[in-house]
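RETRY 2/3 - previous attempt timed out on the joint model. Re-submitting the same 326-residue input unchanged.
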Amino acid sequence: MRSKLLSLILMLIAVLIVSVQPICLAQEEVEEEEEEVWGGADGEAGDQIIVINPNYEPWFESIWEPPSGEIESMLFSLQAAIGALIIGLFFGYYYALKKQET
Amino acid sequence: MHIMEGFLPPMWAAFWFAISLPVVVYGIIKLNKLIKEKPQTKSLLAVAGAFAFVLSALKLPSVTGSCSHPTGTGLGAICFGPAIASVLATIVLLFQALFLAHGGLTTLGANVFSMGIVGPVVAYIVFKTCRKVNLGVLIAVFFAAALGNWATYVTTSIQLALAFPAIDGGFMESFKIFATIFAITQIPLAIFEGLLTALIMKYIIQVRGDITDQLNVTTKAVSS
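RETRY 2/3 succeeded.
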């Protein structure tokens, strides 16, 4: 039991380190660069395409776009929430079932 | 790794569709067969899909100063094989293309190829190889998911470089540009995805080790 707890804590720490360290590391860059920082890599690639080939015109537009950044974040959270709900249901259900068996 | 809507010339868009479509169709056939033969795996299938949903919605900051996201397809690939993982990835990508204007319908073929095919295939091969050399299940899961994630982004860089070779230097020059954006940004995120996938696998084995045994994920671990 103790080793299980330890491995869990170690893993959570690792997850934290990996997700937080870039913010600290890139702090200097944030001040130097004038362009948008912490933008999406996908959009950056789009910008580079225009740099490489200035004549390129995107030939198709998204059928529907979230009307604002806020609505977009809402939809992204919704996506995560749907997934988290299913994962929670699975673990809750089988955890309780296992507990009942023993 | 989402190539934005309209940002692939029609010829390349069609090319990637032609490659991805048969794999996804094969995946759907395999999926139906799996549900028929092993209906008890349905709950794990839902978790694998849900995991990809959660992870691909998390845009995380990275060392290069831009944000990118994990793919979450490694889990599905390890449990069910790359073909079924490609179906799960297609669902996620379609959701994002339609409701989030993230990725796109014209670039769906290319995005499915990187996130739904190359990523899962790499994850699957890495997992099986790690298990062959007797590494523990969770360590194998870590490497599989991390490398699968990274391979996805390298593939996107190759796809963009093929479609947009630089005037000076051609493919290699473009590849360098796109790889800087995607492949380097992705290194910490790949490690993150590897750890998270290993974590969820640990719990899956705890509550439903019987299913992972049936899917040959954990069977060889008995000896070690």
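The two ends of chain B are 37 Å apart (CA to CA). Closing ticket.
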